[in-house]
Amino acid sequence: MTRFNRHGVWAIYRFEVNRFGRTVWTSLATPVITTALYFIVFGSAIGSRMGELDGVDYGAFIVPGLIMLTMFTESIFNASFGIYMPKWAGTIYELLSAPVSAFETVLAYVGAAATKSVIIGLIIFATAHLFVDVTVEHPVLMLLFLVMIAVTFCLFGFILGIWAKSFEQLQVIPMLVVMPLTFLGGAFYSIDMLPEPWRTATLFNPIVYLISGFRWTFFGEGDVSIGVSLAAMAGFLALCLAVIWWMFRTGYRLKS
Amino acid sequence: MASVISIVGLTKTYASGVEALRPIDLDIEKGEIFALLGPNGAGKTTLISIVCGIVTATTGSVTADGHDIVRDYRAARMKIGLVPQELHTDSFETVWATVTFSRGLFGKPPSPGHIEKVLRDLSLWDKRDAKVQELSGGMKRRVMIAKALSHEPEILFLDEPTAGVDVELRRDMWGLVRELREGGVTIILTTHYIEEAEEMADRVGVISKGELIVVEEKNALMKKLGRKTLTLNLAEPLAALPGGLDAWALELKAEGHELEHVFDAQAEATGVPALLARLGALGIGWKDLNTRQSSLEDIFVGLVSERRGGAA
Ligand SMILES: Nc1ncnc2c1ncn2[C@@H]1O[C@H](COP(=O)(O)OP(=O)(O)OP(=O)(O)O)[C@@H](O)[C@H]1O
Ligand SMILES: [Mg+2]
């Protein structure tokens, strides 16, 4: 009997979405306020002196990077917390003893976290509209990218949540790795603005390819070609899936 | 009777090197109440955790209702409900939500009627909209039982269900367990309260240091290993046991005011009258006497210390 346990997936998904629902106002107000602050600081104060980048007004130019920045951190945070909490509180016993496969578990947890991330991404996008004119050249691809990023980073967060043994470890990766890489990954500038050897060094930062690709869906223009961006994204996604597959196969930090 | 859980050659060595289970073979019969007894650290929780899928076995296999718990885990786990030893609950959920969640998790379609019945049976109905974190410890224990029963399991594991629970709840729980058994549910429970096993179980297994040392019908076990103790209140205290009583296992207690004789239940017909006659012949008078059947606890302590003595 290898039927798909849809009731199980739905139960976890609903549980997770309800968890977000309990903090709905802070979860939504935070990205809106942060976005507004970024626009006031970067868009107005600095942007007025920046002129255009790649033929795009600076205020509009930072919108994709801003969405990515928040999506990265939110996805990692929500997905890692979702699986870390039951581990920490001990309620994971129920999941481990339930007739739910590894695939179903990931689908439910990552699906719920990704849902929240996509909603936040869209809210930031809408908020940005209040400050600047920004048009999207490839809306379908942009949405696809948004969803892919949410899923990939939620998978990454899920891995982090299983790996982490303390709240500190849970926060160290997003704070010490992902945030800096995002800032250095061209969230607020074009990497062409950097002098060598920094420009070449930046190309080793995987985040560059993701931000560039997302920006391409907005303006038809990125630091690297869209093909390279999509390949980088697919590679990251595949890596996360492989790690999760390995974790469940070995029971890594879930079972003794 | 058909066995509903079949454990063959099960061992567990934790990463720390602790051998929690030496090869265990055990069959649980359909519809019985099986009590697993043993001192702290004997391996009871480990055994249950393996059957329920929380801990991976080192070697050996387990089937639940004919389904291998690893290869056919879905079918096996759908039949099993677990109330773990530790209290682990979602703090922010309501009682209703957390119990409904469990039912879904185990792949069953929603059934508010069943959830209502479970909550009523456990006297949780009034608390259904309360957040779990607002409940007392005993109430949380009930919530965990409700979660385990939410998906109508055919096999129920109760790992120390009555630890830290008041007398009333314990009585309620016993009633509930009997009712479940009447409904055909097989129940495996661990407990440190021997009277619980004595009161409830059909069969008893004693586990010590990862080994199952006895598996027996409770009544047969009591009969076989049960000992009786005869206590005589002496008319005059004795300083020492007089000669001529070597045929009986005797001990002086209470500063020579009491004479205690421990004997096998089967041997009772022969030993006691002869002893009393001999005492009369020796001129030792007694004011009162009483006999006591040993409890499962005595048997259990005897077994475990016998083992320890044998191993040392
Ligand atoms: N996760 C673990 N890692 C390492 N050792 C463990 C782990 N869990 C249990 N043990 C060890 O395995 C042995 C059996 O423990 P277990 O919890 O199964 O005992 P128990 O019979 O349930 O005891 P209790 O009556 O105290 O609940 C103990 O020596 C314990 O220290
Ligand atoms: Mg235990």
Order of helices and strands of chain A: HHEEHHHHHHHH
Q: What is the helix content of chain B? A: 25-40%
At the fourth CATH level, what is the homologous superfamily of the largest domain in chain B?
P-loop containing nucleotide triphosphate hydrolases
The overall strand count of chain B is 14
Distance from N terminus to C terminus of chain A (CA atoms, Å) equals 26 Å
Structural class by secondary-structure content of chain A:
mainly alpha
- Largest sheet of chain B, if any? 6 strands, mixed
The number of helices of chain B is: 10
| General form of chain B | elongated
Q: Are there runs of chain B of 5+ residues with pLDDT below 50, and where?
A: none
In the CATH hierarchy, what is the architecture of the largest domain in chain B at level 2? 3-Layer(aba) Sandwich
Count of all domains of chain B: 2
Radius of gyration of chain A: 19 Å
- By helix and strand content of chain B, what is the structural category? alpha/beta
List keywords for this structure.
heterodimer; A: two-stranded antiparallel sheet; 10 helices; 2 strands; globular; B: 312 residues; alpha/beta; Rossmann fold; Alpha-Beta Plaits; 6-stranded mixed β-sheet; 4-stranded antiparallel β-sheet; 14 strands; 29% strand; binds adenosine-5'-triphosphate
Detailed description of the structure:
The complex is a heterodimer of chains A (256) and B (312). Chain A has helices at residues 6-22, 24-50, 58-89, 92-96, 102-131, 139-163, 167-183, 198-202, 206-219, 226-250, and strands at residues 52-53, 56-57. With 256 residues, chain A is an all-alpha fold. Chain A has one domain. In chain A, helix 2 runs antiparallel to helix 3, helix 5 (102-131) packs across helix 6 (139-163) and helix 6 runs parallel beside helix 10 (226-250). By secondary structure, chain B is of the alpha/beta class. Chain B folds into 2 domains: 3-223, P-loop containing nucleotide triphosphate hydrolases (Rossmann fold), CATH 3.40.50.300; 227-293, Alpha-L RNA-binding motif (Alpha-Beta Plaits, 2-Layer Sandwich), CATH 3.30.70. Chain B contains 10 helices and 14 strands. Chain B has a 6-stranded mixed β-sheet, sandwiched between helices. Chain B is elongated, with a radius of gyration of 24 Å. The two termini of chain B are 38 Å apart. Classes of the chains: A mainly alpha (256), B alpha/beta (312). The interface between A and B is medium-sized, with 29 and 37 residues. The structure holds adenosine-5'-triphosphate (ATP) and magnesium ion. Magnesium ion (MG) is lined by residues 44-45, 85, 159 of chain B.
